[in-house]
Specification:
Blueprint (H helix, E strand, L loop, with lengths): L2 H17 L14 E2 H10 L6 H10 L5 E4 L2 E4 L20 E6 L3 H7 L9 E3 L3 H9 L4 E6 L1 H6 L4 E3 L5 E3 L7 E2 L3
Antiparallel strand pairs: 1-3, 2-3, 4-6, 5-8, 6-9, 7-8
Helix pairs in contact: 1-3
Family: Belongs to the KptA/TPT1 family.
InterPro entries: Ptrans_KptA/Tpt1, RNA_2'-PTrans_C, RNA_2'-PTrans_KptA, RNA_2'-PTrans_N
Function: Removes the 2'-phosphate from RNA via an intermediate in which the phosphate is ADP-ribosylated by NAD followed by a presumed transesterification to release the RNA and generate ADP-ribose 1''-2''-cyclic phosphate (APPR>P). May function as an ADP-ribosylase.
Length: about 180
């Protein structure tokens, strides 16, 4: 299948499974799930038909495993701006996690730490390479190291999404190692 079409479908799914389900008339349950048939019908009714094969290819081929499928249902693995409870268990993090950003954000991060902004959680990566790829989406990446072990010892909670993204409510500046 055409790679551009798969990317377009993935972005469409992200928009409607993470941020604007109402835009196409779907309703996510409290855990973020919607029936696949309901999603496909709504997409077609709103001028963006997606075949079941295309959907399966996007889910299977997505290198970030952004979507989960279970029992005829689909949801985004994390990154929601709409109210959902992904019901992820509290998980012991590795000693360090990483966050990719750009230099223009460093002053605010030094002052306030990492905040979820329009999302429910701060997203952290398990390695520097992944964090650099995330930061590179907005320009020249800067990778911050987060002392997750110290945060956990101080009572902060971490959750691990189905696609390997670590989630925290907030990362205070005192737990961030800035470059240079």
């Amino acid at each position: 299948m055409d790679e551009r079409r798969l990317v377009k479908i993935s972005k469409y799914l992200a928009r409607h499974l993470r941020h604007q389900p109402e835009r196409i008339g779907i309703e996510l349950d409290e855990r973020g799930w919607v029936e696949i048939d309901v999603l496909l019908s709504a997409a077609a009714a709103h001028g963006f038909p997606i075949s079941r094969d295309e959907l399966e290819q996007v889910v299977a081929a997505n290198d970030k495993r952004r979507y989960a499928v279970e029992d005829g249902m689909i949801r985004a693995s994390q990154g929601h701006s709409v109210a959902v409870d992904l019901d992820l268990p509290v998980t012991e993090p590795p000693a360090f996690l990483y966050h990719g950003t750009v230099a223009g954000n460093l002053a605010a991060i030094r002052a306030e730490g990492l905040r979820p902004m329009s999302r429910h959680h701060v997203h952290l990566s398990p390695d520097r390479e992944t964090a650099a790829r995330v930061g590179a989406r907005r320009g020249r990446p800067v990778v911050l190291a987060v002392d997750a072990g110290a945060m956990r010892a101080a009572g902060h909670v971490f959750r691990l999404s189905a696609n390997g993204v670590w989630l925290a409510d907030h990362v205070p500046p005192s737990f961030i190692r800035f470059p240079g």
